[in-house]
């Protein structure tokens, strides 16, 4: 075999290896979801969703945890969405290239890399202790809002960057002020991209466990929260709690709750991708 | 009137942006204040040299080394899984794969990163550990091996996606020059494209390491809660993050030394990830200038 053939062979071998690696990740994802479906699907019925937690595995439901997750989702959206988009608009439209903008940029990039559990420590000290909110839904939502803020800001900036300059120029030419241009032209034109980023950020928030454990969310709450100051649990914490118990029935419960959690996460990701595709088509 | 309105709006947008600075300031001061109180009771020398971490026992030792070794061991295993696979995927997708395949596979792989980490923890404990026990009989029920492998699977998309972006950004002219010389795709990929995209690839690796070090739920569920100074991947260990979870689950009095240990552990974790993130930011900035 001469060296040309040898090189061709190596080339082919790497191609096969590359396909194998790519499929490895995907196949694992399938095995993994399949395994959880086998373990948990039999446990899911209406009662599993509407029942309160119980000491007996077969009587336990996820109602309080699911309600906690929904509360967290709504409050986090209400806090992080306006602040994140506002900060993104400021950085992309107003801030001049100076020291402050450089610091803001480095800072946001750094915050995006801070481990989520550190946000939990911040929330524990500032929201739970100093502001006296206790281990409430509000304290949890504030903590998660800070966690996803960098993701929303970056997504907002990317979406605004993608808006063609001609739209902006046309608006200014008609005599619109800066804010009128942003509010009436730029935000509507970048809306799809911003929405995609916000939904992806929220889907991350729904799956977060560690920061909420640190903030003091409970593994067992007898009732669903009825106002922002109530104590709460969320689906991932309920799952964690069930995994930690040795009896087999709880493992089945954990698998069933994971199916619900994955359903929520994947549906949110699907919606985000749908918005992104629609928006990218319109932009073109 | 219009002018005042514009000004008010601009200032309130600026205020939103400044919140991010307040967050960083908040994180650093909270960690620093509580850690300072911790170190007024525990000597900083013991903290870095004592080989035992037993703050919840009667015989208390405050040596961070066992937690640090647990963290680095699980992260090392994760990177050993994610790096070769993630890089191979990125090279295959950017240099070999048809465009349509790349467009469908990339979002699917990114789904791996969207799965909540508590779910991976379940997978590591319930599926991977029993599976590995068939080959390694003395593998303990909680161990850093399964936790590390599963964490590696989780961070594959971090390496593959970011590296693929970097490989894709390499100017076409470079590749064409290489093909023109008669090089195969493999030779072009490893001798031209990868070196040209090296800074982007390094950034992706650093971010993956930082992610592995800060990962919590997988290790809290599958690696155990026994701090020990070891490199043996088959025995239970405890990471910094898992310790913080363990203490948070218990009933710890605010202001007690146990309460402060989680901040001392937290600041150690923060310093590590902060250094890695700053490094990757620097490299990224330098690299952007190169091609723009």
Descriptive key words:
heterodimer; A: 284 residues; mainly alpha; MetI-like fold; globular; B: 292 residues; 2 domains; 12 helices; 77% helix; 0% strand; cell membrane (chain A); phosphate transmembrane transporter activity (chain A)
Structure description:
The complex is a heterodimer of chains A (284) and B (292). By secondary structure, chain A is mainly alpha-helical. Chain A has eleven helices and no strands. Chain B has 292 residues and is mostly helical. Chain B has two domains: 2-41; 65-291, MetI-like (MetI-like fold). In chain B, 77% of the residues lie in helices and 0% in strands. Chain B has twelve helices and no strands. Chain B has helices spanning 2-41, 44-49, 65-96, 99-114, 117-133, 144-168, 172-180, 185-196, 198-214, 217-222, 240-249, 257-291. Classes of the chains: A mainly alpha (284), B mainly alpha (292). At the A-B interface, helix 1, helix 3, helix 4, helix 5 and helix 6 of A face helix 1, helix 3, helix 4, helix 5 and helix 6 of B.
